[in-house]
Amino acid sequence: MMKKRSLMIGAVAFAALLALAACGGSGSEQAGQETTSASPTTTSAAAEAHNQADVTFAQHMIPHHQQAIEMSDVVLAKQGIDPRVVELANQIKAAQGPEIEQMQGWLTQWGQPTMPMMPGMEMPGQTGMPGMPGQTGMPGMPGQTGMPGMPDMESPGATPTTTPSQPSPTGMPGPQMPGMPDMPGMAGMMSPEDMAALQNAQGVEAGRLFLTQMIQHHQGAITMAQTEIDSGQSHPAVTLARSIIDTQQKEINTMQGVLATL
């Protein structure tokens, strides 16, 4: 009799343990579900924590950085460049490449294009854009096959316009296209003529020109970054702007020192 009673007590205890285990698992699953459901809210909040100044900063600084990388690639492809200039060019590429990817990620998260709209891109009467029928290119050109103020590349006697700019390492076109003026707000950008001069320079002269141009380019980036600090809302973007000012001011000081000895 005692043996049967002991078996019954053991069975009841085992059943109780199973019930407790089931409750614990259910609680863990519920906690996991709550954590998962909270993630979209967190992501949405992060995406909303920005303003137009942040968008403009990223959209302008991306092509600005891309041109700095392009300038560095030009000088790195040359022979007879001072080792200090080579080191600076590699340093600039290493710093600005990841920053481009970071800013592109923000714009994607914010639902914004990675390039700002150029003047005239939303004018009526153009094909391929909302409310723009009847055209195949930009205004002001016969045949509408190019940008404003550029000759029709298919017209007889037209002279093709070329540029030394190459596609950027990030897959986006260089910020300076033939016949295009500097984009508003992008301080310190090199013109196509500036880029051509760098392409054609050799040896010590190429090193001097690179340093002179990059100092101007960095000063423009510092101006843009300060605007973001003054007007931006996104904490990561403002933090990057502060980093750009710190890093590029140090590089300016270094470049000025090297330039004085070339």
UniProtKB/TrEMBL annotation:
Alphabetically ordered keywords of this record: Signal
Stretches with biased composition (Pro residues): 166-177
Start-end of Low complexity biased regions: 34-47, 135-165
PROSITE patterns to which the protein is assigned, alphabetical: PROKAR_LIPOPROTEIN
Pfam families xrefs: DUF305
The keyword Signal is annotated on this UniProt entry: yes
Segments for region (Disordered): 26-47, 135-177
Full protein name: DUF305 domain-containing protein
Organism of origin: Mycolicibacterium rhodesiae (strain NBB3)
